Amino acid sequence: MNEQSNKIFISCGQQTDEEKELGKEIQNLVRELTPFDPYFAEFQNSLEGLTKNIFSELYNCKGFITVLHRRGKVASDVRSRASVWVEQEIAIAAFINQVLEKDIKVVPLIQSGIKLEGVRKQLIFNPREFTSNSDALEFIRKKLSEWEVEPTNAEPLTLVYRIKDKHITHERHDYDFVLKVENNSEKNISDYHVDIEFPRKVLVDKKFKHEIQGRKTDAHIFLRAPAKDEKKTIYPGDREPLLRLAFYVDSEIFHDKLIMGSQVTATLYSEDKLLSKIDIPFNKINKF
Description:
Layout: E1 7-12, H1 17-33, E2 37-40, H2 47-60, E3 63-68, E4 70-73, E5 80-82, H3 84-98, E6 105-111, H4 119-123, E7 128-130, H5 133-146, E8 157-168, E9 172-183, E10 193-199, E11 220-225, E12 239-250, H6 251-254, H7 257-260, E13 263-270, E14 273-281
Parallel strand pairs: 1-2, 1-3, 3-6, 6-7
Antiparallel strand pairs: 4-5, 8-9, 9-12, 10-11, 10-13, 13-14
Helix pairs in contact: 1-5, 2-3
């Protein structure tokens, strides 16, 4: 297997809108409070998907945030069982941590009213019980702020992005896609740029200073930032804003399978060397 990566594995229910919303907010906290990228585990429908995605990401992760939600009732008990899928991911993480002796930071949460039995009591050490998303997020924010985990073999620069809600109605959701670059090294860096590909139709603005006309497609805009006259020296430990894109989702866009199935891509270069690339499914950066 590969060396330990710079990711935090998020294991969270995805059956309801509230559960999906919690998963997205946890991702935002990871980006905001840590130098790591979040990996939000999705259900896999094949053995290959399990091996390449779930198993591999669990083995290589730096941290593990697990959220157990209520599912069906336990026979002869007023309490509920938890998500079997999430429990299985907890068991895998425990094996990696305890048997393979790979150090993984863990933040365990359990929704009130869940009954844990047998070995599950031992695998989930001191889980924090929560009753609402805000309660869970407050606890996660506190724990992430306390973590002392350094990135593994970190590149001198890394990309950090956030999705900010601007205006949410039943008819339309407006967001900002905010992209920053962080200096993880001990030296000043001034030679860098990022190439961004973003679905064209969802953007509020139609003209951009940073657009590279020769690289655009019918579906995606191609941007390069910062422009030569905007470049700033990034000092060690600093995060420098690169780009803010206003975009929206309404019913028409939500039902457009090509747009919802498309990717947002950001590729970071420094001194003509590719340092990192992030591919974000568009359907993961909106809550419509």
